[in-house]
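[User]
Protein folding is very new to me. Any chance you could explain this protein sequence and its structure tokens? I have pasted everything here:
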Amino acid sequence: MEDTIHITAQESGERIDALLACQAPIRSRSAAARLLEGGRVTLRGAAVRKNYRVTAGDEFTVVLPQAAPATAVAQAIALDVVYEDADVIVVNKPRGMVVHPAPGHPDGTLVNALLAHCGESLSGVGGQLRPGIVHRIDKDTSGLIIAAKNDKAHEALSSQLKDHSLFRVYDAVCHGALHDDAGTVDAPIGRDSKNRQRMAVTDKNSRPAVTHWQVLARYARHTYIRCRLETGRTHQIRVHMAWTGHPLLGDTVYGGRRDKGLESQCLHARGLRFIHPTTGEAIELWTDLPDWFAQVLARLGPET
């Protein structure tokens, strides 16, 4: 499939790989890099390098790979299983793993790994490409994600997402110094009218979004925070923190700056609490910070 991308004055000066990473169905910098390295992105007939900075009026031709298959296949991919029983499985997803197959990511996803690990014991509510998937986290966000092994469990967990009894906690590093030690961002999120591949705080065609945050540590130019989601909108923490003027470190999509050795937003799904769909027991799970996150904190210098 072939697509054409026209560059506006507002986009002028951006790197082509960063710009492509925000386009559907590409959706990631790694997918954009693969297209560029494969010569699938051309400008006036010539292949474009990934560090090319676009100019207003540029018109790129992008040859997209074939669409993902209609069904996901099992792949023997190692999983860090934090909890598992006959109804649910909770996995500590590594940074860089896509949750389910999509254009540009036909395999190597969490779903492919779950199919190999669980066999046919995954719910069908999410369809053939998303078996068992109750909620998602971004490709470049690491941490805890829960999947359902049967339809009854899936429906129960989905209801908990809707009534906010499924408790999700994320650790993050944001730019700047937050004035208070804790707070709440209550601001609706919808598609960005200027860039449909991004989300934004907006009153138009939006849904309510609430993020509670607290400061864990302060550094000279950054703040280490913990966020609890009351709702689960796409890119919610990233959008809300950027809206407050404190975008996440490494989140170039929403205004954050890169850190040496950090290729994505500094965000980790640290904690998860849910009511077991069969026993009614409250299950609370936590994971340690991954090494890459701990290394980021170490580079920020002493706490202030």
